[in-house]
Amino acid sequence: MAEKIYVIGHKSPDLDSVAAAISYAELKNKITQTDKYLPAAAGEVNRETAFALEKFGFSKPEILKNAAGKKVILVDHNEFSQAVDGIKEAEIVEVLDHHKIDFSYDKPIEFRVRPWGATCTLIAQLAANNGVELSQNMAGLMLSAILVDTVITKSPTTTDKDKEIIEKLSQIAGINWQEYGLELFKVRSSVSDLSAPEIIKSDFKDFEFKSGKFGIGQVETVDLNEFKDRNQELLTALGELKKEGGYHSVILFITDILKEGSLFLVASSDEEGVGKALGGKLENGQAYIDGIISRKKQVVPKLTEAFDK
Ligand SMILES: [Mn+2]
């Protein structure tokens, strides 16, 4: 068998990362008429990912703990700080992503980034471009990823292309996407049986700014009250993580996708500065800020502006 090429998303894998790895590996195998592309995940999958995999009949991808010496295609990320361990000793053959670009490499490679709402939107478009038809289950899995990444099209990251692809995939999958989207977010936001560190880490990314390292986690909910009694516990866990991980700031923002605003919980060496950067005022490390729902389009650019100069 030819040398394997792993298709892999970022650490703390989310649904888009995992669905992109599975669907892109399959698409690459079909286009090249090989079986050398293998989906992998850089860690244990989260709950809505497990839910969608099971619903559409997919098994969990292999967990690749270290990519050193392996050939990889990076999907749904391009920053090394978010990539699987050993990435500097791996051979990257391609990147497919929809995030800001922070990448350099010593060889020319396929590098495809579109400013769309999900990596699975790019993959659906690539399948169409290559005349590859998606199965009902694959369409369902990819639709799930796009609905989560675009917050059922409510996120400002949502583009017309995402809406077009959502309609198309819904038809192939035979699913009412509005109803299914709410079902997915209920699965996603039911946190009652998770510990505070698990909630923080469920969708968590590191960013290196000139002022120091920031860790930013996001949880989405259809009801902020679900978290009300746990704010203090979460703040304590954020403080511990800040200390252990040598962070400048660790932020968890809990987004109410129906109200379209977020409750920020922050442990920071510069609490006032973080509040100001986000356009609010933190009191005891907390602030509800209306209108902020996207890490990528809102939180990270605001913090970059304030802390990466
Ligand atoms: Mn994504």
Could you explain the architecture of this structure?
By secondary structure, the protein is of the alpha/beta class. The chain has two domains: about 5-185, inorganic pyrophosphatase (n-terminal core) (Alpha-Beta Complex), CATH 3.90.1640.10; about 195-305, Diaminopimelate Epimerase, Chain A, domain 1. It is built from ten helices and eleven strands. The protein has a six-stranded parallel beta sheet. A five-stranded mixed beta sheet has the order 7-8-9-10-11. Strand 1, helix 1 and strand 2 form a beta-alpha-beta unit. The longest helix has 18 residues, at about 15-30. It is globular. The chain starts with a strand and ends with a helix. The chain binds manganese (II) ion. Manganese (II) ion binds next to loops.
Name the ligand types.
manganese (II) ion
Distance between the termini: 49 Å
- Category from helices, strands and their pairing: alpha/beta
User: Could you give the order of strands across the largest sheet?
Assistant: 3-2-1-4-5-6
DSSP helix fraction: 25-40%
Topology as a string of helices (H) and strands (E): EHEHEEEEHHHHHEEHEEHEH
Number of distinct helices? 10
Can you give the mean pLDDT? 95
Give me the count of strands. Answer: 11
